[in-house]
Amino acid sequence: SLMRLSQTSVLDLEKGLEMRKRVLSGILASEETYLSHLEALLLPMKPLKAAATTSQPVLTVQQIETIFFKVPELYEIHKEFYDSLLPRVQQWSHHQRVGDLFQKQASQLGVYRAFVDNYELAVETAEKCCQANTQFSEISECVFSSVLSLPALLYKPVDRVTRSTLVLHDLLKHTPSSHPDYPLLQDALRISQNFLSSINEESTPRRQSMTVKKGENRQLLKDSFMVELVEGARKLRHVFLFTDLLLCAKLKKQIGGMNQHIIIISEGLYDTEDYTNDMTFCILTQQRANKGSKVMERLKKKLSEQESLLLLNSPNMPLRVHNRNGKSYVFLISSDYERAEWKEVIREQQKKCFKTFSLTSMELQMLTNSCLKLQTVHQLPLTVNKDEDESTGLYGFLNVIVHSASGLKQSLNLYCTLEVDSFSIFVNKAKTRVYRYTTEPKWNEEFEIELEGSQTLRLLCYEKSYNKAKMNKEDGESTDRIMGKGQIALDPQMLQGKDWQRTVIPMNGIEVKISMKFTSREFSLKRMPPRKPMGVFGVNISTVTKRERSKVPYIVRQCLEEIERRGMEEVGIYRVSGVATDIQALKTAFDTNNKDVSVMMSEMDVNAIAGTLKLYFRELPEPLFTDELYPNFAGGIALSDSVAKESCMLNLLLSLPEPNLVTFLFLLDHLKRIAEKESVNKMSLHNLATVFGPTLLRPAEKDSKIPTNPTQPITMGDSWSLEVMSQVQVLLYFLQLETIPTPDSKRQSILFSTEV
Fold this sequence. Notes:
The chain is α+β, with helices and mostly antiparallel strands.
C-alpha cells in the first residue's frame, strides 16, 4: 500500500509539473500579444520624433514624450523577459527554474509606476492632439486601426500590471513548495501585491475608473445583465452605470468564430427619471469561448439556449429611464432586491452635481473599450458558464420560518418577502402576511421553497401602503416601501443536518430572525408509490376520479375555482409560496373529505391554495404526463421540424389516459387565463411553464433520462438542469398552442364534456 501511495504521489507531482509548463506556455503566448501591442504603440514614435525637429512638426517633442512616456522602457523589459523565458520552456524539464526571471521582472515595476502616474495625462494629450491636429488624427487612424485604437493601446500596460498578481498566483498554484522556484515566485508575488496596494491607496483604482474632461473622475459603480423592453420585444443587455452616465451594451453572437467588437451608436442620450445626468446608449460584442467535445457542446448548447430563454422571459419588474426629450427606456429585472440596489446607487449619484455634457466620438470609443476591462459581471448567469469547481447550488426544498423583526424605530404595517436564485435568476418565492402597526412584528410563518441550483436566500422587509392613489399607474405596481434587505448564503454544510438552523439577517438597522431546514431532491422530489386506498394526495388520479365519478379531481376543480374568483391578479400567483401550515391544513381537509373545505379556502391566503394544488400534482405517484410517455415528450420537444414536432406532441398528448388528459386541459385553460392578466400578476406563459413544467412532467424514476458521454460526463447539476428545462419547454409548447385539435369523436366527447 505504501508503494501504491508513493506511485500516486509521483503521478500527482508529474501532473502538477506538467500543468506548470502549460501555465508558462500561456504566459509566453500572452507576452507575445502584449509585445505586439507595445510595438504597435512604438511604430509611429520614431517618425513623429524625426518630424518634430523639422519646420513642419506633427507633434511637439513634449507632446510625443507625454503620449509615449515609458513605453520604450516597458518594451525592453518585456522583450528581455520573453527572450529569456522562451528557451527555458522549450528545453523543459521538471528541474527547470524560471523564478529568477519573474523576480527580476517584479523588481522593475517602478517603470510601471511612472507609466501609470502619467497614463491619464497621456490619454488626455492624445485625445486633444487628435481633435486639434488633422494630420496626427489621420496617422493614428492609419497606424492603429488595424490593431486597436490609440487610447485602447495606451490602456494595455495599465491592464497588464493589474493582472501581474493573477499570473503569479497561477504559477505558484502549480509549483511544489519544495521546488527552488517557490520562494522566488513568492517574493515576486509579494512585490507585485505591495506595488498594486500602493497604487490603490494613492488613487482610485484604474481598472474601475477613467478620465473625464476637466480632470473629473469617472468610476464604474455597477454593472449587470438586464432585459430591455424594445417596442414590446425583450432584448438582453449588459448595463454599466458610471458616476455620470449609463451605458447599455447589446450582446451580439460571435461571428465566424472570431471575436468582433462592433460598436454602434444609438440615437439619443438618456437618463433615469430622478437622475439629471446625460447617459449614452451604445452596443458592444459579448465574447464567448468554444470548449469541450462535440457531445458535451451539443448538450450544453441545448441547456444554454433554454436557460437563455428563461433569462430573457423571467424578469417582470420595470426600471424605467428616459431622456429630457421624453423618450423612455424600460429595463426588466426579476428581483426587487436587485432593482432596489440599482435605484439606491442612482439616487446616491443624484445628490452629486454633474454638469450636462456630450461625448466626442473618441471619448465614446474609450468608454466602450473600457467596459470590456471594467466589467465586474463577465458572463451570462448560465450553467454552461460556471467554473468546474464552482458550486452547483442546492436542489430540493428549503423550509423557512420567518419568526420576527426588531430594531424598528416606529410602528409600521410590515411584511417580508423571500427571494432565492433559481437557475441563477433571483425571483420572489414567498411573502408573509402584513403585521399591522407595530415595531416588533411576529409573523412565525413557515414556507416551503423549491430550490433549483440555489446558492443564496434574500429577505426584504416592506412597509405596506394602503393608499391606492399612490399606485404606480404606468406599471400597475404598488408603492410599498422597502425598509431593509439582507441575504445569506445557503451553505450545504450548515444545512446538511435534519435540525432547524436558526439565524439572524441584519438589514439597515433591522434584524429579522429566521429558521431554515433543507431536504435534498433525492428525498423531497422523488415520487412515491401509492400507500393508501383513501384520500387524494399520493393516490393515482384514475383512482380518485373513479371514486368521485368525475373527469377532473375535486381538489383541482375547487382550487382553480377559488383562484379564478380572487387570485387572477395576485402578483406571482403559483410562483410565490403559501404558508406551509395553511397548505398542510388544506391537504388534510381534502384527504379526509372535510365538508368545510370550501369555507376554509375562502378564508385562506390565495397563495396557500395555489401551493396546495402544486403539492397535489407533485405528490402524484406518477406524473400527469405519465412515466411511460415522458421520454417521448422529451424527445418530441427537441425535434427541429415544426410540423413534425406538432404532430408528435399532439399525438402524444391525446395518448394520455382520459383523467390525465381532461385534467391537464382543464388546468391548461386556467393557466392561459392567468397569463392574460400578466400585466398585473407578472406571470407570463413562460413563468407559468417554469413553475408547473417539472411538477406535471417529472418522472417517478430517480435517474435522469438525459444521455451522457461516459468519457466526458455532463455533471449531475447540468443533467438535472437540462431535464428540468426540457420539462418547462414541453408545457410551454402546449401553453402557446391556440387550440388542441381533436381528430376523433371519442376524444371530442372527452374534450368538450362539461361533466368535469
